[in-house]
Design goal:
With 207 residues, this protein is α+β, with helices and mostly antiparallel strands. Helices cover 21% and strands 30% of the residues. Strands 1-8-2-7-6-5-4-3 form an 8-stranded mixed beta sheet, sandwiched between helices.
Length: 207
């Protein structure tokens, strides 16, 4: 099971089969030669010919306490709801900041918010995974020249409020070594729920 490649690289193989299970062939067919399988904490081990791409320890956070009060956008910025017309700007910001997997149609998974300054997209964050009762906040990123101005905090708080208004709770993920992100999330009321492992594998080009 997987998403369309321009939406997400997350994949799932039922019941964590052994590396010789035929379901790996099914997944390879879905992803195509050279496709990326983001296994996200899955203990499943792909066949030996699948190339390991990354293994990163991370943390999962959940928001505790009351939702923040809605506030005006930071001075000099305009809050916008991002859509297909904003994809080039979104991809450009992601390429500069590398917040994690984000593709041309990832924004279709939920509400993505951006802050523009003088027309330039300088920060964004949005909703990704939606298990019942929960919404994941993802793609939190700020252009290097706009960091330290509270833009990411503003967007996260706005999303937490929107999610709470639906009767859901917010959660998010971060690489364990990203200290600035971890400090920000804890300051905004997120608490560590679990350790996770980000794992990615590449389907053989001859598959």
């Amino acid at each position: 099971m997987t998403y369309e490649s321009d939406v997400s690289t997350f994949t799932c193989v039922e019941d964590a089969p052994s590396s010789d299970d035929p379901r790996w062939d099914d997944l390879a067919t879905l992803l195509g030669p050279g496709g990326l399988a983001d296994m996200f904490s899955s203990p499943a081990q792909p066949p030996a010919e699948w190339e390991p791409v990354f293994t990163l320890p991370g943390l999962q956070f959940v928001h505790e306490g009351d939702a923040p009060t809605a506030a005006a956008a930071p001075a000099g910025t305009e809050l916008v709801t991002l859509s297909a017309v904003d994809v080039p700007d979104m991809l450009g910001l992601v390429a500069t900041t590398r917040p994690g997997p984000f593709f041309a149609r990832t924004h279709e998974m939920g509400t993505y918010l951006g802050l523009r300054r003088g027309g330039e997209l300088v920060a964004m964050a949005g909703e990704r995974l939606r298990p019942p009762g929960w919404t994941e906040i993802s793609a939190v990123c700020t252009a290097p020249a706009a960091r330290g101005q509270g833009l990411a905090a503003y967007l996260i708080n706005d999303l937490v409020g929107r999610i709470a208004a639906r009767g859901e709770r917010s959660f998010l993920h971060a690489v364990e070594g990203n200290r600035s992100a971890l400090e920000l999330y804890r300051r905004l009321g997120f608490e560590t729920r679990a350790s996770v492992v980000f794992r990615g594998f590449r389907v053989p080009t001859g598959a």
